[in-house]
Structure formats: C-alpha cells, structure tokens
Amino acid sequence: MTTDPEKEIDANEVQEAGQKSLSRRLFVGAAALAGAGLIGSQALAQKRGEEQAGRKGDSLSDPGPENKALLELNPNSNLPPFTDHGNPGPLWYSFDLVPKRLQAGGWTHQVTQRELPPSHDLAGVNMRLTSGSFRELHWHTANEWAIMLTGKARVSVMQPDGKMALDDVEAGDLWYFPAGFPHSIQGLGEDGCEFLLVFDEGAFSEDDTFLLSEFAVHTPPEIIKKNMGWSREQFDKLPQTQLYIFEAPLPDSLEVERRFLGKYLETENKYTFKMAAMAPTQKNDGGEARIVDSTVFPVSKGIAAAMVTLKPGAIREMHWHPNVSEWQYWIRGKGRMTVVTTDARARTVDFNANDVGFVPSMAGHYIENTGTEDLVFLEMFKSARYHDVSLNQWIARMPDKMAQAHLKLTTSVIRSAPQDKSVILPK
User: Fold this and answer.
1) What is the largest CA-CA distance in the chain?
2) What are phi and psi of 134, to 5 degrees?
3) What is the pTM of this model?
4) Cα 161 to Cα 197: distance, rounded to the nearest angstrom
C-alpha cells in the first residue's frame, strides 16, 4: 500500500486511528516521543498540503523590486521545492562575485572560507596567465591540487632532495605540489592558460604565499653575499617588490630544459596526471565520471577528486561521503543540488559555470543537470582516497522486512529501484 504524497494529512484523524489500533503501551511510547519533540503539534501542523499551497496562485507573486537576471540563474534558491526545510547553512558561492587581482601577465581570484564559511577543508583559486607569463616561484603551507581549464602551461616543482620535476600540461591535466615544495607555473602557446587551484586549507589565501623575490630582498645584503656570493651592487638589482604574476619570454622546449637538469631531473615521482586521457571510471547513457585519488595518482595524498559529466536530465545519484566534506567547482552547464543534513534541514540550490558548491561531511545530496547541454563539475575532497555511499545500494542490501519497516512501501516497489551503485543515472 502506498500513500499519495499530495494528500493532506489530518492530525486528528491520525491520532484517532492510532488510539484504536495501538496498545496502551505503544500509545504511551508515542506520547513520550511527542513530549520529546519528535512527534509534536508543530510538526503535525506543518503539513505537506500547507507547504504546497504556498507555491500556488498569488502566494508566489512578488510585486516589489526583483533582480530578474539573478532569479533566472537561481530559480530553486529563490522558490525552493516544498521538500526544502530549515537552513543547513551556505552551500553556494561564485568566482564571479570576488574581485580579480590584476597584473601585467594575468590575474587571480579566490573563493575561500572567508566567502564560504562552512568550507574548513578546502579553498579554491582561479588563475589566468598570458603567453610566457609566470606565477612567480613560490611555496606555501597547503598542498596544491590543480586542473588546467584552457590552454597550456609549464610547471616545475623541486623536491627537498634537490631533484626537480618539469612538465607541460594542457586542458584536462592535473598537477599536485606538496606543501613546502617550491614550484612555478608559466603560460605557454599563443594565449597562455587558465587553471583552477585547490588547497587543503579552508582559510588559505593566494595573497599569503612564500615568494622567491621577498625571501631574497628582505635578507640583509651581507648574508646574500655569504650565501650566494653576490655583491651589494648585484643585490640592489634584485626585484624590490614581489613579482607574483609577471610577463616573461617563452621558455626553451621541454626537452632542452629537462636536459639542462641532467641527473637532477626527477623521473620517479609524477607530479602531473593526464586526467582527460584516462578511461572513465564509470560511463553510461547519462554521462561519465573520472575519479582520481592516490590509488591512480600516488603523489596526491592530500586531495582526491572526481570530474563528472551529466547529460541533460541525468543525475549524480543520491549519496553521501562518509569521511570528509565536498567542495565543488562547476565548469560548464547548469544544474541543481539538494543537500539534506541532520534535524530535517534541507536546501536546494542552483549552480552555473564558475560557481563553487559545498556539501557538509556525510550530508545526503544529488546533482541534476537542469540545462540543455552537458553539465561538467568537479567533486573535491581533503582525503587521499575517494569514498561515497549510494542510497540505492544501501536500500538494495536491506532485507525485505527491514526495508518495508522503514520505507512503508511494498517489496515490489522497493525492489523496482536500481539495485546497485550507479554514480550517474540517466534521465
């Protein structure tokens, strides 16, 4: 027997039926639950029919001022589905709302815990370098994971043992630089590059990194003389302020620069990964997913990721992550996500390209492609391994009586759902 979800439930009828059918012992137990706030007049008064009534007719009207463009991008955020309840906290921000730091050679801007307060684990930086331009040689306190969005770049990273890895990366490629390892990024080709950096510190700031220029110029010149052998005159020629992002000539070929390193070229540890070239971890009519963690990219011990592509109407199945929160970057298309946390708090949010999403640790959620083109987004985690739990798979593993007791549905209906994990479900 199934229940019509559209039908309003009358609290008096429920109580009268319960009094007739329950034993005195069970009724007292139910009353105790009501006293504890689990079954109360306030909860019963908040009937589904009443919630739906507010979404009909003039109840939806807004005769005052409206930002039409913003509303069109966020229809579910402004007029949530009746299943939303309470406030699970901020789940959305956009790189398009934060200022760019503009310099000759490119720009950068960031979404950190300051913009998205619940995101304690991860922060993101979006950066652009024109052809030949550098992100100055530097290092920082957080591990750095990155994906090339467009163009091409040359990256370098030096290990504490003095060996340096050098590689060229293109759209869809990744790199990972451990905290404290000095590194650089240089735009290549005719148009340089744009990339996303993800750091495993929520309060990370791209403006607060250790720079080669600052280390040198703020060390007394007599120490520079003892350390490098450079004279005061040579010291005075060093950059007097940080370079950060700056224009430079294009480098020699990768082969030439690797040959220069000779025996100091690192060949065992791989700090770059060709994600676009890897076979999808899962692929079906609804899209595909590529999961990259330390099992396939061994150096990436601090951050795991999945790149998901959803066809129009397809969904990233209902699931949760049992170990850490999820930080998202939306690359293309449009979609929506509902996040359900404890105490029945649920919120549905719309996303578009260049947006950032956040899901608290262990919170249930799905993602749906609501547009007419492929939706592409990244799932990011502060973890060496990628883990998720499928709601469909959990229900499928429940014995019949266990599932019926909890879902109040017939066995045939319960077993009509997918019986195994499927990261992507077609329309």
Assistant:
1) 97
2) -105, 145
3) 0.87
4) 25
Nearest CA among 312, 325, 303, 425 for reference residue 366? 425
Between helices 11-21 and 24-35, what is the axis angle to 10°? 140
Q: Rounded to an integer, what distance in angstroms lies between the CA atom of residue 169 and that of residue 145?
A: 13
The number of residues in the chain equals: 427
What confidence tens digit (pLDDT) does each residue in 10-57 have? 434 434 444 444 343 333 333 333 333 334 445 444 567 777 777 788
Q: Spell out, as residue ranges, where the chain has pLDDT lower than 50.
A: 1-41, 43-45
Q: Are 19 and 28 in contact (CB under 8 A)?
A: no
Q: Which of 144, 201, 206, 379 is catalytic?
A: 379
| b/e per residue 340-372 (b: at least 16 CB within 10 A) | bbeeebbbbbbbbbbbbbbbbbebbbbbbbbbe
Report residue 369 as tokens. 């492609």
Residue 27, classed as helix, strand or coil, is helix
Alpha helices in 180-267 (DSSP H): 212-217, 221-228, 232-236, 254-261
> Which pair of structure tokens corresponds to residue 405?
């007791």
Query: Residue 379 catalytic?
Result: yes
How far is Cα 52 from Cα 59, in angstroms, rounded to an integer? 10
Comparing CA positions, the residue from 203, 210, 196 lying closest to residue 139 is: 210
